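Hey, I'm writing a tutorial for new members on how sequence and structure tokens pair up, and I'd like a real worked example in the thread rather than a made-up one. If someone can provide the structure for the chain below, I'll link this post from the tutorial.
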Amino acid sequence: MDAEIEGYRRQIQSLLERVCACLEGLSEAQLNWRPPMPGANSAYVIAVHTLGNAQAWVLGIACGWPVERDRPAEFRASGPDAADLTAQARRLSEDIDAALAALAPSALDQRLMPPQALFGEGELMEISVREALLHVVEHASLHLGQLQITRDLVLKES
């Protein structure tokens, strides 16, 4: 695998693992607790959204795999425990490994117009495959920080 693509793969894998680690040991009530502020999300929602974004942007946008995404449903998600999310993250990591292993280094500069359903919010714009992978690293990093703060808050409340 190309060194640059391997760097993206390592970073994304690490972020997904750290998202899952933040969920460990939380009860159902803790996973689904939302901080008492407008627009705040539960740890479960943040994790589901982070996985949904990584799947859409790496597999669907950057690698051209057939992927469907229901972004609004990500923000309604709830669950009894973190086991299903950890299993999803593991499967997603395996798919990302396979997809990036098949990605030619020359594809990184390819420009594309992502489907709005995968792109998410904001004005749709042409991006490169490289920009799509960088977006996942940035997006997952931001949400990992939110998840860490949400975990700290819910543990303080318990």
